[in-house]
Structures are given as structure tokens and as C-alpha cells.
Amino acid sequence: MDTTDAVMDLAKRRGLLWPSFEVYGGAAGFYDYGPLGAAMKKRFEDLWRHFFLQVCAVPAAEVSCPRVTIEEVLKASGHVDEFSDLVVRCGACGSPSRADHLVESAGYDGMADALSAAEIDREVAARKPKCPNCGKVQWSDAAAQNLMFRTEIGPGSGRTGYLRPETAQGIFTDFPHLLRHFRGKLPFAGVQLGRSNRNEISPRQGMIRLREFSMMEAEVFFADTAAPLPAFADVAERTAWFVPNKTGEAVELTFGAAVRDGLVANEPLGYFLALTHRFLVTAGMDVKRLRFRQHLVDEMAHYASDCWDAEFQSERYGWVECVGVADRGCYDLTQHARHSGRDNDFRVAVPLAAPIRVPRTRKEPDMAALGKALKQQAKAAAAAMDAEFHAAAVAAYRQATGDPEADVAFTFANQDGTAPTGDAKPGKATRLAAADAEIDVPAGSYRERDGLWITEVRRIPRVIEPSFGVDRILYALWEHAYERTEKNGEPYTVLHLSPHVAPVQAAVLPLTNDDDVVRTATDIEAGLRRSGILTQFDTSGNIGRRYARQDEVGTPVCITVDPDTLRDGQVTLRDRDTTQQERVTVEALVQALARRFRL
Ligand code: AMP
After folding, report:
1. 439 closest CA partner among 389, 360, 384
2. Nearest C-alpha neighbor of 185 from the set 269, 271, 61, 59
3. pTM for the whole thing?
4. 45, 325, 359, 394: least surrounded by Cβ within 10 Å?
5. Which atom of ligand 1 approaches the CA of 323 most closely?
């Protein structure tokens, strides 16, 4: 039995994790959390909330959006067209395999998921990997398979929906509401925890690859990620292991040095890498088996300017990605701004220190007159007037500021910031250059306004996104916490879970079956529960066996109640990791435990 088998066996026996639908034979890629697993997952998610809502230096708020997502959203995000893996099918048994995993298992040394279908076909032909299901070598050509579960919203409506493949899109589409919530001030973060679905092609890796899993994502919006983030100074001296894409070699560095040396693109990204690291280590990940690996250039999404995966080391699976932390630029909001037609709602106004003069008059269409004169061409004419002035404004803005930003909008006003008044002049007949034709507009179909200034620039914010997979990390915590030793010649298991995520915080164990002892222990347990401490009460078997049962599920402390307790009002606290014992009065118990569990 390797550690993965041992951990999964323990998880199943003790109610951390069960294969879903097991009485019907189960289904690959689905697991249920049992009583202890569900308790641990909840604590783990609450710990994440602590870090990303409370500790986080950027103001953050949680939202909760539907899992069923309308097609328009996932079309805009790119998931409908691009969220796919290449699949090859076995000609002998018909079973599908993920093509990149197949060629990697056959010795391909690189990032196979960056290969095209034709390149995959060449690799499959050259390496002749066996079918993991039947052992034959008879593969179809690679074909792209979208990973989303598709459904219909409203029976017979023909309206397509999908189960969301990530929680991020809900945050992006809520951006205008969030911006209002934060009173228009950047930076801020929207976070979401919830289930996501991906119809993985052939999940064969237990909790690493699921068809339904939980995510915790933060979308952190900045006006400009190149600007320094003052809170970065608080984390700059912390260290982590980094694997830069240039060298592929792991180096231990401070976050400060990683940003200073240009390894990590900017301070906001560095800050969220550091917060991610601190959270994972607090949750119990072994810091020596945790690293940040930078995406290779051809692995990175085309819009991302930098992306790092937090990876944990597993005995069986090697280094496994469990968090992606990316600088996504303004890609996501730009997509939703365009596809929703609500461009202005996705922009944030940044006032200019000094207004900039636009050296051109603005043509303001009179839509009634334009419509009468030009019929269907009226809209194109109005757009051309707008474009003409916008181009002049961009040129003036760029000349004054040197800002390289391609996609900017402006607020125009008088030089003193007041709104332009109604003294625009009637326009003369003129010819406009529209998108695909020149349009002659008659006199009086627009007015001309002079003397406009740019007073603020409205830009689409940048996004830093830490994206966590809950289930993978829980598995990592179990594997890293797992220790197999011996006691009195017998195998003995201890799960060294962090007290901040352990599903049971304290077990209350009456040492004897004496009625008074059991009653006192019951009262003590009830008192702890009322104080919010997760407890278990166990009376069965000798005390050594009961300690063993608690050690196996990672309970940090056991509290034994014995006949002396009735006389001196004290109980024994036994520490899981040191097995040391101390006597504590019942009155001081809650405080003593709170001290141990304090963050
Ligand atoms: P991604 O959006 O692909 O970068 O995924 C973000 C995180 O979600 C990953 O780091 C994983 O922890 C988790 N994740 C992605 N796909 C799966 C899956 N099929 N099963 C379990 N966790 C997943």
C-alpha cells in the first residue's frame, strides 16, 4: 500500500470521503464527504475566508452565484469555444483517454497540453502508448472535447445553459454591482466559494481529478497592477520555493526578491502569492513539499501576463497543481464589457491631475434629424461622429500622459470640471468616414461643441486571480499529515492535521464507566460544544485504543475525565503530536483550548 492507498483507505473507513453512489457501483470523478470530511471541508473554507476576507489587505466581499450559467456568459469568457481537452479513443475497447496525459505517460517530456491535435497525433503514432483500459494500441486521431456539462434552461425552451466550470465568471458579471458596493473605489476583491463542474475525460486520479469539485476564488480588481501595493511590504520578507520558467530550477526566495528581480510580474501578484502561501501552510501543507511553478510561455493563457501554480508534492502523483495565481490583465472584464454591450459599467473612473484639452470640436448627432435624412445609415453616422472625436481625444491623452493603455474611455467636461452647457452650434453639411463607407450628412443634423476637456479617464480594471481547488488541497493535507509508525509492535497511524482544519478539535474521553465520571464528561463535552469547539465523545474500548482512534483522524487534543476530576475539578489534556499530558481545571478548559487553536 502506498501513502495514497493508505490515506484513501483511512478516509473511507473513518468517514472523511466516500465514493459517490457506491451502492450502485459508483461513478468515476465523484466523491461524497462523510461526516468528518464535511466538517474538515467547512473549517478549511472558513480558514480561507479568514485569510481572503479578513487578513487580506485589499477590501474583499463574498458573493454567491448560480451554478447553472447562461451561454452568453461562457461564450464571452471563451469557455464555450475553447474550454476543451484533446481526446483520443481506443479502437479496440472504445474508451476515451486524455491525449496529453497519454503521451506524457509514454515518456513525452514537456507540457503536452500545449500541443496541437496534429502534434499529439504524431506523438501518439511515435510512442504507441497502450490503452489504460484494455492494453491495446489502436488510437483514433485526437479531437477537441469541450469539458462543460450542458443543459437546457426551462424544458423545451431551447435556451442553453452550462454547469459553471469555475466560480470566477459570476464575480466578473457582478463587477458593476461590486463596484457600487465598494463605492467606486479600487482596489477591491470579489470572492466566491462553491461547486464547479468539469466533465473530465477519464478521471483516474482519485481526488485530483473530479467531475464536480469545490473552488475558492478571489478576483482582485486594480486600476493598475504596475503601481506598488503598500501592503506588499508586510509580506516581502517571507520566503517560498519558486520555479521560474526561464530556468526550471527551484530556488528559495523572499517574495520581495522575487518581485525585485522581475521573476514575479508585480507587487499585487506577489502579495497574493504570499497570502496563498501563508494560507496553505496554516492549513497544514508541508512547506517543504510546496512550491510555486511559473507557467511556461506557451502554457500561459494568451491574455495572462504572469501565472504561477502552487504545487504540492505527492508521493504517487509527483508535483500537483492545487492553486493557480494569475495576472489576467483586463481580459475578463473587457470580454464581458463587449459581449454584454454595457461597456461603461465595466469601467472605473480615474480623475486626471490636470484636465487635457481636446483640440477638435465634437459633433453631437440630432438623432431625429439624422434618422429622417439618412434612415438606416443614421446609427452608423452617429457612431462615426463619436469615433472621430474619441480618436482625437485618445491622441491628445496619449501625448499628454504617455499611457500605453489601448482601451480607454473618457469623461469630457469644461476645463473646471463642470458639465458642458447647451451652447453647441448647428453643424454644417459634411462627409463622415464610417466603418465601411463614407456618409454625407446634411446641415442641421448635428451640433458642434467646442472647448471640451478630458477630466477623467475610464479604464477597465486589471485582475489578479488566486483560484483554489478545495478537494485537491484537502487530499494534499491528508497526505502531508499522514504518518505511519509503530506502537508496541503494531502499526500506528497519526494524522498531523492543523488544529485550524481538523474535523474534531477535542475528544472527551471518560476514563471509567462510573456513572458520575460519564455524567461529568458529558457535561464537559456539552460545554465545549456550546463554546463552538468541535468535539467527539468516546466511551468504547481501553484508553489507548481511544487515543489511537483520535490520532488516526487528527484530533489535536484528547481530554480525559477520571475519578479525580470529581474531587479536584481537573481533567487531563493529551497532545496528539507530543503525547504529553497536562492537568487543567474544567473552568480553564475552554481558554486553554482557545489558546491552542488561536490563529
Ligand atoms: P484551473 O481553473 O484549471 O486553473 O483550476 C484551478 C484549480 O481548480 C486547480 O488548481 C485545481 O486545484 C482545481 N481543479 C481543476 N480541475 C479540477 C478537477 N477536475 N478536479 C479537482 N480539482 C480541480
Report:
1. 384
2. 59
3. 0.93
4. 359
5. 10
